[in-house]
Amino acid sequence: MVSWRKTTNSKLIVALFCLAFSGCTFIIQNPAFAPPKSKKPNLFRGVYHVHTQYSHDSKAPLELVMETAQKAGLDFVVVTDHNNMNGANVYQDMNAPKPPLLVFGNEISTWHDGHLGALGIKETPPNTGETAKIVEFIHNQGGYAVPAHPDSKRKPWTNWNIENFDGLEIYSLSDIFYVDTFRLILKAFFFTPKHFLKSVLKTPEPALKLWDSQLLSGRRIAAFGSIDSHLKFRPLGRHIENLLLHFQAVTMYVLADELDEKKMIDALGHGRSFIAFEMRGIAQDFSFTAETNGESAGMGESVSAESAVRLMVKSPQEGTIRLIHNGRTIRETEGTALTYESSEPGFYRVEIDRGGEIWIISNPIYVTPQESS
Ligand SMILES: [Zn+2]
Ligand SMILES: [Zn+2]
Questions:
Q1: How remote is the CA of residue 219 from the centroid of ligand 1, in Å?
Q2: pLDDT above 60 (res 78)
């Protein structure tokens, strides 16, 4: 009897210790890491693809989204509710202080092809069975079409005949939650938020291959890292899920001269941005630039191959830096910098690993062929 009690007590102590140690990752909002202390000019830090109470499958009030973004030290949050823009008007009336700036897009459930992110639109596209018409509507409004979670097990994007989309989610946090839910819940009990994120966020190999194959067609396609965040439970008006865990999982850094809705959208739509998994280190000091005779370019931009182009990568901390040209690694180095000269046209992009897993993914710089005279 005594030994049974002893075993039960010791199991209880171990369980309590684990709970206290982990902060029960899914529930208690312990930050996984501290946000950057200083700010860099012309660089904004945010998250993409968040569902609020205006989605049928989320209960997150706008106030909670803003409060969580503040805790995560974010400048902006891109809200993409399902098939409606209802949150946008409410947000405008709130006249809330910025940052964080909420930017409203949409996630459209197409009839046959999967989910489509729409940025830079003023109203929700008509619910038509023809996805091409939806993309046309988005473009007519000056917006950007971004297939969501393209290789998800649950709701993949299936229509690759549509060739004029502008971006692609190359990472979607929601994908991992639907693949291995039981193991994730177990991990959440015993891992701290930082170690939990480190252990579940891996290099998205299939999506990177898919993106490369689309870029090889010669089109410019911006990469997006998505958190696809939903707040599922809110009993008695109190949330019990750790929304902060989502907001710290996948960061999007945007290059723009000010924190303005249109500027954020245009920079994201053109790929003037990079993606970071910051539980492996704050990424704001990353840069990827190109220089040639008097011309320079950053991510999402282009330079011509009139003469040799000097591509320069700076990593905020030691890591494995890979320079990728037209889908193939052309230089890999350990350290904090990489420089490479080339006059080969095509797309150049960068990946940096830390601890053997992905940390930073840049958008491409496009080197255009020398004009024939
Ligand atoms: Zn979706
Ligand atoms: Zn979604």
A1: 24
A2: yes
